[in-house]
């Protein structure tokens, strides 16, 4: 089986975590998966030893993506004129054609070529769909080639694939309404393999430590998080926020002022260090507007927090309501405002140490049940067999 697309595979990026999770589920179900990414990488498949299952996952780089230093004209030409040609040449060179091709992140030109190849070679094509970007999130905006290409792929090419793996109920419903075979698989990771005590213990300290970990971009309302924490701290609440990902300069630009004393900006950290920061916190925090992009996607950081045994304080977007029960795996904010977060933080401050311990255990158990890649091995394998039938 081939998992292809113009994405980068280095561990730690959201796209690579998604690909790694789906590929690991398929390997656990007995498939041998070759991940052919768009970055420069090994020319021959290099097996990933850490995958758990009767199958395997190997990775190679096809160099589909423009180089970082290329100018805009060169990047546009790469995407519009040549996107997908290297992938097709690699597929043609295989002695045995893959049983399935799964595509992640393919724009219009990439999909035109890949769909034609799969039809001609009678290989089922499955789209892994994880986003519905708003124009303001993409370079060039509404009339930019990236947005137009992504929109055509979402509305025209993906519904014409043999199947769709959707990250959310929103996307699953969208493609089922168009007559597509679709299966919903949220973000997954190796929850079982994380070195977390069971049940995780609450750090022996007073007050409340919360953490935001990620790249806010135009999705996460980090400014609202900071203002909510500051609101509680100014009212005398013993609460502190650790921000992982954005640099101090980026946070200052976001706020238009230095962050308050209750906020510590740690900047970008290696993935193991991010997990360590999470485990030392009482809660992670996430606020998003209930816009279409938020309902269609699913925040990987939410799954990673629960996997590390850390409850989440968040407003409900996408499918979070399936996994975040108020007072069980975390605390639900009534909306995405700083004021709503301040109310939720006040509730968290009133919890006893024993109540926090119970909540951390529930977070970990939810992640094991819902976000471990092994959970979806059987359903994904059955879906692929259905698509091939």
From TrEMBL:
Keyword terms, alphabetized: Glycosyltransferase, Transferase
Domain Glycosyltransferase subfamily 4-like N-terminal: 16-185
InterPro entries cross-referenced by the UniProt entry: Glyco_trans_4-like_N (IPR028098)
A Pfam family that the UniProt record links to this protein: Glyco_trans_1_4
Protein family per UniProt: Belongs to the glycosyltransferase group 1 family. Glycosyltransferase 4 subfamily.
Protein name: LPS biosynthesis protein
Organism: Plantactinospora mayteni
């Amino acid at each position: 089986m081939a998992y292809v697309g113009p994405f980068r595979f280095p561990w730690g990026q959201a796209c690579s975590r998604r690909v790694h999770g789906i590929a690991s589920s398929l390997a656990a179900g007995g498939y041998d998966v070759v991940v052919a990414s768009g970055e420069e990488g090994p020319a021959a498949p290099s097996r990933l030893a850490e995958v758990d299952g009767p199958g395997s996952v190997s990775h190679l780089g096809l160099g589909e993506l423009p180089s970082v230093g290329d100018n805009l004209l060169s990047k546009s030409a790469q995407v519009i004129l040549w996107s997908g040609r290297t992938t097709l040449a690699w597929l043609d060179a295989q002695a045995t054609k893959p049983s399935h091709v799964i595509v992640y992140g393919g724009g219009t030109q990439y999909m035109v070529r890949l769909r034609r190849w799969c039809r001609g070679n009678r290989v089922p094509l499955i789209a892994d769909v994880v986003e519905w970007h708003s124009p303001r999130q993409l370079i060039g905006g509404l009339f930019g080639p990236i947005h137009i290409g992504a929109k055509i792929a979402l509305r025209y090419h993906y519904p014409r694939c043999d199947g769709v793996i959707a990250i959310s109920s929103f996307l699953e419903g969208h493609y089922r309404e168009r007559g597509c075979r679709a299966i919903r698989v949220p973000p997954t990771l190796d929850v079982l393999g994380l070195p977390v005590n069971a049940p995780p213990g609450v750090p022996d300290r007073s007050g409340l430590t919360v953490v935001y970990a990620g790249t806010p971009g135009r999705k996460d309302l980090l400014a609202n998080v900071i203002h909510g924490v500051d609101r509680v701290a100014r009212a005398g609440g013993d609460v502190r926020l650790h921000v992982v990902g954005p640099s101090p300069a980026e946070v200052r630009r976001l706020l238009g002022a230095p962050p308050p004393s209750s906020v510590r900006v740690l900047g970008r950290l290696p993935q193991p260090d991010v997990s360590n920061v999470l485990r030392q916190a009482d809660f992670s925090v996430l606020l998003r507007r209930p816009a279409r992009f938020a309902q269609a996607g699913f925040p990987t950081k939410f799954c990673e927090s629960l996997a590390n045994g850390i409850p989440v304080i968040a407003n409900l977007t996408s499918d979070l309501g399936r996994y975040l029960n108020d007072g069980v795996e975390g605390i639900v904010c009534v909306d995405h405002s700083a004021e709503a977060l301040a109310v939720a933080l006040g509730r968290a401050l009133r919890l006893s140490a024993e109540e926090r311990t119970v909540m951390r255990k529930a977070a970990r158990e939810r992640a094991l049940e819902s976000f471990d890649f092994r959970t979806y091995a059987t359903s994904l394998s059955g879906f692929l067999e259905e698509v091939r039938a």
